Every structure is written in C-alpha cells, then in structure tokens.
Amino acid sequence: MSEPPFLYLDDAGYRGEPLRSAYALGACYNLYHEYPVDLPLDPETAGRRFRPQRDRAEGWLRRDWSVEDRADLVAAMGWLGRDGHRRDHRSLVRRYCALPGRAWQEREAMLAEHAGAGNDSARAALWRMWAVERDLLGCRTACFLAFDAARAAQLARNGYVLGFLSLDEVRAYLFDLAREVSASFGSWQDYGRDFVVGRAFWAGAHEAEPWDPLMRRLDTEIDSPWRRIPFGFPEDETSRGVTSADTRDGPCWTLETAPAAAAS
C-alpha cells in the first residue's frame, strides 16, 4: 500500500458534532483505502474534484460487496447491523474454548492436513484455532464490534457518494451505529484494538496485515480524527426517524423500518 496523505476533516461534509463522531468510526478503513475520513465535498456541487471518489466508491462496493444498487447496499448495511462477522466470531471463540482436548486435537490435525495441501480456508481456520488457544490479540474477550462498525461507516459514506443514500439516511444509520460503539468501548484506542482483532480473525492471519502501523498513525498524528474528536457520542436532539428492524439481540443499525406488527 502506498503512503497516502493523512485523513483530513472538512466541515463541509458534515455539519454537526454527532456526524463528525460517526464518520470517525470509519477512519481505519478510510485510511487503508486512502480516502479522506469524511465527505469533504457535496456530491451535487463538487464537479471534477469529486468524480475520482465516486469512481473508487463504485469499484469498491462492486468488488468487495457485490453492491450494484441501493437495494444491495441497504441489504449489506442491514446485515452489518444485525449480525456482521461479530456474531459468528464470538460463537466460534466460545465453541473453541469449550472444545474437549481430543476433539480439539482431531480438528486441529484435520485442518493442518488440508492447510498443508494448499487449502486457504483451512489455513485461516487453523490460525483462528491457534489464536483462541493462545488468546492472540485478546481474542477470547474481544467484542468484535469495531470491524463491523468501521465497514458499516464506510458503506454509508460510499452509498452517499454514489447517491444511493441521502445525508439524512446516512445520519440516521450512523447515529445508531455510533451509540452502540460508545456503549461498548471506552476510547478510540479500545475501538482500534477491537478493530484489529476482528479484522485479523476474519482474515485468519495477522502477521502480514498493515493495520498496526495505521492504528499508530490514528493514535499519534496531530490531524487524526481520533485525536481531534473526543470519543463518546454526543446525544442528538432530533429523532432519527427510522425503527430497528430486529431488536432481538441489542441495538441494530438499519435503514429498513420494522414491520407494523413487530413495532406494536
């Protein structure tokens, strides 16, 4: 990855402090993809200076998320709000922690055999077993929320860039996301550490990842949003105007409204 110009904040992209805080949630991914942290220009008036962002957003959504239109985007954002990878990761950690010794050895041997034959999925699964065994990155007690939250913030950002979402919709979605993050972590550093373990667990590897130096930049550089914006989501004075589609397992960020029967 090339060394990008550092993230910058431009108040034209978001007017209120809550939205500033919400966009900072995507800083990890925005820095990795060499995006500015926020929406520095209004898509309707930006002209040539905005078009490269639009092209990159379209390519990223299509390549990494198979998103072609608004419906695809809303489905992906809803999945991150309801489940994401955090539910499977937490379930896997619990299952491995409870796995009897003989069953552990048998699964480890089976995965090692397939990994040795060049099976990348088996290699990743074997890394996760070892990570749980050694509690690498603190994975046994990880929340696994930040990886989903950072990607959700970037999906919302790129959806706005492409005109799939209005700014009010982005704000509503990010408000819910940011409130859950604020209730789950005590600082940007805690959030960053959880992001790294979630990303590593998803990838099934950590050593070759670029995230550690990126986290150091977010923690130390003077223009970092994690230094300029205090952690903790300020309460918004207005209603967000949408209802969670699934509240069975805590807060859920979604653009979809609940069915009437479920809402009553």
Structure description:
This protein has 264 residues and is mainly alpha-helical. 58% of the residues lie in helices and 0% in strands. The chain is built from 13 helices and no strands. The radius of gyration is 19 Å and the shape is globular. Mean pLDDT is 79; it is low at 1-9, 11-15, 241-250 and 257-264. Pfam families: DUF1266. This is DUF1266 domain-containing protein.
Q: Helix count, per DSSP? A: 13
What overall form do the CA principal axes indicate? globular
How does the major sheet shape up? Answer: none
> What is the strand content?
under 5%
- Look at the helices and sheets and give the structural class: mainly alpha
Estimated helix fraction: 55-70%
Mean pLDDT over the full residue set: 79
Low-confidence stretches: 1-9, 11-15, 241-250, 257-264
* Head-to-tail CA distance between termini: 50 Å
Report the order of strands and helices. HHHHHHHHHHHHH
Quick summary:
Helix content is 58%, strand content 0%. The chain has helices at 17-24, 27-32, 51-65, 70-82, 86-97, 101-116, 120-134, 146-161, 167-184, 188-203, 211-220, 225-228, 260-263.
